[in-house]
């Protein structure tokens, strides 16, 4: 069963194209995380929030990623990280064309 990880936090920027350029190496490194399947990057410059929606193979790999990512964000001065893990109902998600494997 796949698990969805939702992460968000306050961030001053960058956003948009500047964010894509600044974090492209980070995006590449996320591809190497154990159990990682995909990520949708989220941002809201109006409220100065960023984060992402991730899909992991197991709950354990999602939990390990949260631990590692929270420490990495703390290195950027971001300490108030909201993270939630959800099991996915594959049957209903398939009906609504959700991108899970």
UniProtKB/TrEMBL annotation:
<keyword id="KW-0503">Monooxygenase</keyword>
<dbReference type="GO" id="GO:0004497">
    <property type="term" value="F:monooxygenase activity"/>
</dbReference>
<dbReference type="Pfam" id="PF08803">
    <property type="entry name" value="ydhR"/>
</dbReference>
<dbReference type="InterPro" id="IPR011008">
    <property type="entry name" value="Dimeric_a/b-barrel"/>
</dbReference>
<dbReference type="InterPro" id="IPR014910">
    <property type="entry name" value="YdhR"/>
</dbReference>
<protein>
    <submittedName>
        <fullName>Monooxygenase</fullName>
    </submittedName>
</protein>
<keyword id="KW-0560">Oxidoreductase</keyword>
């Amino acid at each position: 069963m796949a698990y969805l990880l939702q992460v968000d936090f306050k961030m001053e920027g960058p956003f948009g194209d500047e964010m894509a350029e600044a974090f492209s190496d980070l995006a590449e490194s996320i591809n190497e995380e154990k159990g990682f399947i995909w990520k949708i990057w989220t941002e809201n410059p109006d409220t100065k929030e960023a984060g992402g929606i991730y899909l992991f193979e197991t709950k354990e790999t999602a939990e390990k990623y949260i631990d590692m990512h929270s420490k990495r964000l703390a290195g950027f001065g971001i300490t108030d990280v909201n993270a939630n893990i959800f099991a996915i109902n594959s049957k209903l998600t398939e009906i609504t064309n959700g991108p899970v494997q």
